[in-house]
Amino acid sequence: MARRIDAERALDEVNSGRAILACAYDDTDKCEKYHLSGALSLNDLQAQERTLPKDRKLIFYCA
Length: 63
Description:
alpha+beta, 35% helix, 3 helices, two-stranded parallel sheet, globular
């Protein structure tokens, strides 16, 4: 189930290791333009999906 969270909560989840941050744009130019440090692109997320920890939440962002 998807739900909205604020930026402070997202930062806490990522910094604590409970979540993985991913850019929600599938357009490479937009993803590069709005990239946040440590975030995965959708392409990276798909490429790494089998190796990502299953116990972490995924937090998607867009500008």
